[in-house]
Design brief:
The chain is α+β, with helices and mostly antiparallel strands and 382 residues long. The protein has helices at 3-10, 16-22, 33-53, 60-63, 77-87, 116-130, 144-172, 175-199, 205-235, 243-279, 283-316, 331-338, 345-355, 364-367, and strands at 57-58, 65-71, 95-101, 104-112, 138-142, 202-203. The protein has a four-stranded antiparallel sheet with strand order 3-4-2-5. Strands 1-6 form a two-stranded parallel ribbon.
Length: 382
């Protein structure tokens, strides 16, 4: 073992937590890329089937309907449910929530489209049950066209966003990275929307805003990885090295940064769900926070298991990386590269031979520690 490599190994932390904190990990992301492909494919298949089979649980903002805000002085959610049942209104898709405002607490009752006669009857029944005047109840009628207009604008915003992102990444990095980043973002959006369908979460305008917000988060995490990949491409430009090593080194070097970013972003969202929606009863926050939480988790996952493997596949198929594209080191050799050291070409060949069950010769172990090819001996003068 060379002095350089021996020193690096001696300085490595003894625990996994310590190695993660100090950026000394040696995880073979490239070698495990098929795991991400399988998991993503299953998630994608399940969510897409759910979208086609049962669709989305759209709120009245998209389906159209009527809502009442009833003062909650003596009126409860159960009272509202009894009124709807007694009026004979189809309660499928209806929502009853206790909310707070500056003027006091109120029960929000939402049902899908009904006739004007039914709306007046329900208003009278709600006023009677709440012991208030009919004029004290705020009634809103929402048209389905309003929700359709929001959806169309969201789709246009998404298309424009993807085009701008593709141009930016292609100019800043290259077109392969742009393709990988866009596929990762589409992966996040489709699975996030599919999970809403799978678990029956209600889709509201706040949900649509959250879905558009997570695009930026997903892109940020991917750009962090790609920026380090680009740096390592330059670093290894003069060395015959496989693109699997470039991906592995880059992913291990940014792992702690990605973990810190994800944790610091998810904790406030969890606070919105637990404290804002759970403790304080602000249900509107839950509609926004659930979509954000799902999107952030998917964005972190996709930058590691979707964007990076996609980029590796595209780069390996290119002319410059095709020959050594699938060759990569693991274990302490990978850790040496992560920490800024170097390993010889023969070391990579020996590692590849071990993975395939072949032996590279009796001198392969000795040659693997060399950092350069042996120099020829000089001829002695006679």
């Amino acid at each position: 073992m060379s002095d350089e490599k021996r020193t690096m190994v001696a300085d490595v932390a003894s625990t996994g937590r310590g190695r993660l904190f100090l950026g000394q990990t040696a995880v073979d992301f490239f070698g495990r890329r098929l795991v991400g492909v399988v998991v993503s494919s299953l998630l994608f298949l399940i969510t897409v089937i759910s979208l086609f089979a049962q669709g989305l649980n759209l709120g009245i903002d998209f389906e159209g309907g009527t809502s009442w805000d009833v003062p909650a002085t003596t009126f409860t959610v159960d009272d509202a449910d009894d009124v709807l049942t007694a009026s004979g209104v189809d309660t499928e898709g209806s929502r009853i929530q206790l909310r707070d405002s500056d003027s006091g607490s109120f029960v929000k009752v939402q049902v899908r489209s009904i006739t004007d006669v039914q709306a007046r009857e329900i208003s009278a029944l709600l006023a009677e049950a709440a012991a208030v005047d009919v004029d004290d109840i705020n009634v809103n009628v929402v048209s389905a066209s309003w929700g359709s207009d929001i959806t169309n604008k969201a789709v246009r915003a998404l298309v424009i966003f993807l085009i701008v992102v593709a141009i930016f990444i292609s100019l800043r990095f290259e077109w392969r990275m742009a393709v990988a980043a866009i596929l990762a973002m589409l992966h996040d959006v489709v699975i996030s929307v599919g999970l809403y369908s799978l678990f029956g979460f209600v889709v509201t305008p706040a949900t649509v805003i959250a879905f558009l917000t997570i695009l930026g988060y997903s892109l940020y995490d991917t750009i962090v990885v790609f920026d380090r990949v680009k740096e390592n491409e330059t670093r290894f430009a003069g060395v015959r090295i496989g693109y699997g090593d470039v991906i592995n080194v880059s992913m291990n070097q940014v792992m702690m940064r990605s973990a810190n970013t994800s944790i610091s972003s998810v904790l406030p969202v969890i606070s919105l769900l637990v404290i804002g929606a759970g403790v304080l009863g602000a249900s509107t926050l839950s509609e926004f926070a659930i979509a954000l939480l799902i999107g952030m988790l998917m964005g972190t996952y996709s930058s590691v298991f979707v964007a990076a493997p996609t980029l590796a596949t595209l780069k390996i198929s290119s002319e410059s990386w095709r020959k050594d594209g699938t060759t990569h080191v693991t274990g302490e050799d990978l850790r040496t590269l992560v920490l800024g050291g170097s390993v010889s070409r023969r070391s990579r060949s020996a590692d590849s031979s071990e993975n395939t069950g072949e032996r590279s010769g009796p001198s392969s172990d000795a040659a693997s520690v060399l950092q350069h090819e042996p120099r020829p001996r000089k001829k002695r003068r006679r």
